[in-house]
Design a protein that fits this description.
Length: 281
C-alpha cells in the first residue's frame, strides 16, 4: 500500500526581522502562502529501516537528507518499530527561498502519521517540525498564515486572493544561513505587515500587494545582484508586485490577469532559464 503527500512551495508575502535572539535565531514576523508548485512524496511500509529514493541527483539519500532526519525523529519520538520507503519527486528548485526542503519535511510528518497510524494532530506534528527547521511548522498547516517567533508560531488566516505567480530562480542558489550570518538589523527596512494582513482578510488583492516587502532582500542582493534586475524586469513587464521570497534568490511577481502573467513569463524566459508560472493555493 502506498500513500501520497503533496509538498507545495511557499512564498513570503511580507517579512520583517525584529531582532536577534539569545538562542542565535532571529525573531521574525511573516505572512506566507503556499503555491501550486509542489514536490510529491510517496510512502510505503517497510519492516524496520528508512529508505529514500528520488528523481533528483542534487540531494543526498541518506541521514543528511531532511526527509530522512524527519522520518527518524518521528520514529524515535513515538517508538515506531516499522520503517518506510519514501520516494521524493522533486519539482521545487533547491536553495531557492521557496521552502522546498521544509515542505518535504512537513509532507513526511503528515504522510508517516498516516502510514504508521499515529493519529497525531497537525499541532503535534508542527511542534515536532520545529526541531527540523524554522519553516516546517508553517508547511505542516499548508495554508496562508501569519508566522512569528523564529517561524514556530503559526496563525492561519484567510487564503491569499487567487493570483498568478511568476517565479524566476536566478542561477546561483543561496543558503539561508549565509543571509542571516552577517545581518545588521539596523540597516533593514520594516514593512507594514498588519496592513497587509488586513487586506488579505478583506480579500483585497489590490491592497495586499501594496504592502509586500522582504527585509532580507538587501542582504541577499549582496550575494546575488541579479535579484534586483529580475525584480525590475518583472515590474517593467506589468507585475502588480515583485519580491524576493524567503532568503532568495527566487523572485516572484503577482498578477490576477492571465494574459499579463503569460507576457511576463515570455519576457523573462530569455533572461533566466528557470521560469515558472503557477497559482496561489
Amino acid at each position: 500500500m502506498s500513500l501520497y503527500e503533496k509538498a507545495p512551495a511557499k512564498i513570503n508575502l511580507c517579512l520583517n526581522v525584529l531582532r536577534k535572539r539569545e538562542d542565535g535565531f532571529h525573531e521574525m514576523e511573516m505572512l506566507m502562502t503556499p503555491i501550486d508548485l509542489a514536490d510529491r512524496l510517496t510512502f510505503s511500509l517497510l519492516d524496520r529501516e528508512i529508505s529514500l529514493d528520488s528523481n533528483s541527483s542534487f540531494m543526498p539519500l541518506d541521514e543528511r537528507n531532511i526527509v530522512y532526519k524527519t522520518a527518524q525523529l518521528l520514529k524515535d519520538t513515538y517508538q515506531v518499530t516499522q520503517g518506510a520507503d519514501i520516494y521524493i519527486e522533486k519539482n521545487i528548485p533547491i536553495a531557492a527561498g521557496l521552502g522546498g526542503g521544509s515542505s518535504d519535511a512537513a509532507a513526511t510528518l503528515r504522510g508517516l502519521n498516516r502510514l504508521w497510524n499515529l493519529e497525531l494532530s497537525l499541532d503535534e506534528l508542527a511542534r515536532l517540525g520545529e526541531q527540523i527547521g524554522s519553516d516546517v511548522p508553517f508547511c505542516v498547516y499548508n495554508q496562508t498564515a501569519f508566522v512569528s517567533g523564529r517561524g514556530e508560531i503559526v496563525e492561519p488566516i484567510q487564503p491569499f486572493p487567487k493570483a498568478w505567480v511568476i517565479l524566476v530562480k536566478p542561477p546561483k542558489g543561496i543558503s539561508s544561513w549565509t543571509v542571516f550570518k552577517d545581518l545588521d538589523i539596523s540597516q533593514l527596512l520594516s514593512y507594514e505587515i498588519q496592513a497587509m494582513r488586513e487586506a488579505i482578510e478583506n480579500h483585497s488583492f489590490k491592497d495586499a500587494v501594496r504592502y509586500a516587502g522582504n527585509a532580507l532582500e538587501v542582504q541577499a542582493v549582496k550575494q546575488n545582484p541579479l535579484i534586483i534586475e529580475v525584480k525590475d524586469k518583472m515590474l517593467q513587464f506589468g507585475a502588480e508586485t515583485a519580491l524576493m521570497s524567503g532568503t532568495g534568490p527566487t523572485v516572484y511577481g503577482l498578477t490576477q490577469n492571465m494574459k499579463k502573467a503569460q507576457r511576463i513569463v515570455n519576457g523573462l524566459k530569455g533572461f533566466c532559464k528557470e521560469v515558472y508560472l503557477v497559482r496561489t493555493l
